[in-house]
Amino acid sequence: MSDPVAAKSGFLKMYMSSHPDTLVGYAKWYGKVTEPITSAEMSAIDTKSMTLTCTLKNGSKKEVVVVIDPPLSGYDDVKPRLLEMKALSQEGLGMIKSPKITAFHLPPRGINFALGFYSLVSYGIFAVSDDRSPFFAPAQFLHAYIPPTVFKILLSMWFGIHILEGLYTISLCRKHKASFPTTVRIMFSLPYDEFSNRSQVAYFAATVGIGFHVWQDLRRRIQDARIQSVMKVE
Hints:
Blueprint: H1 9-16, H2 20-29, E1 37-45, E2 49-56, E3 61-67, H3 78-92, H4 108-126, H5 137-145, H6 148-176, H7 182-187, H8 192-210, H9 212-232
Antiparallel strand pairs: 1-2, 2-3
Helix pairs in contact: 2-3, 3-9, 4-6, 6-8, 6-9, 8-9
InterPro entries: DUF2470, Haem_oxidase_HugZ-like_sf, TMEM254
Pfam families: DUF2470, TMEM254
Protein name: DUF2470 domain-containing protein
């Protein structure tokens, strides 16, 4: 099966030829080129990597392969990913600052999934299996095959994994200064630093309760903010 990005690499190479500074940033940040670069051009691209041919200050050429991780899902994923990679390279090289996230958001999908999980596990743990009411009839069936201890283990594993995910969420918050909306901060008369710390606790608690949906949503919003930041200066 042909690579959908490689099939249109001719257009992408021509388009990126008008963005040499972006390619130089890719080479320096992702390709780890430490020598002074005067120019760079894209010689190949597919869903997994791009190949850059760099012209160094001394006149020599250097070929660099930049891995695209995770791989592009298709051609439509090229533009947003290249813009994000541009922002990341410029952040890493100290050319721009990391975007700030100024609104706390709980993804509805995560809330619905968590409520369903808690309802099922709580029912499995606390349901009275010897009660003859219709409400507990499913519990009698469940407990015939799955003892309540299994549900307790599932709940413990849920929180254990989500605590680790919560630490990752805090790292995103610290890097991107995530906070609640400014109007809420003013309403409670909280200074920015104190409020930022409280928002990190809120993001951590949300991740422990809901899981990966929180940090995935936060990463998506960071990606959108990065894309907007680089598009403003293009």
